[in-house]
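ugh ok fine here u go
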Amino acid sequence: MDGTETSAREGLTPDVLERAVRAVVRSAAACASYCEHVEHNEPATTQQVVHAAEQLRETAAQLAAAAGVSLSDAYATRIRDVESASLLQHGSASGTSELAGADALDAACTWADFQVGQLAHDRQFHPDVFGLPKVEQLRHYTFHVTKLAGLLVDAIDAGTWEDFCPERLADVAVFGVKLATVCNERLPPTALEASAQSEGASASGSPEARA
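structure:
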């Protein structure tokens, strides 16, 4: 391990990792709570999902900053890898490569840019989920966020951050975008890395699950 990697790992203190785990767990719980209320036809607001999405984006930015990783690069690489491995990467008529989402992210700088690129990616490469009613999309995304919470706990317990980052770190940001989009929340024109600066302001505003 070289000096750069050592320095990056030193930024991932137990306190940073514990806050990250709590944020992802609470985000998953907030989404699950919304889905459960809707299932029972009880009063529910998508605002708790919007808050959960914001917390995921902030958490991804904070972890990336602590690890010395470019969240923008990790996000774009993750999407390109998914598209490159998909059978849907080729146009049915021309046979030419279609990487609309990944191509859009090459020049993306802000959360708003990444939201547009993610939407293009989902429309083409995840038609099975993209075509579902929004509440069903949200339920599916809740599964993914819950899985990410477990994977982050495993990475911390086993000391295998390298297995979580950058692919799963990017996924935390990805679902922070997807959850906002499914709630019709337009993301701001701010840089991904800037989200890490909001840690202090949002530390007490984590979305809590409501039973």
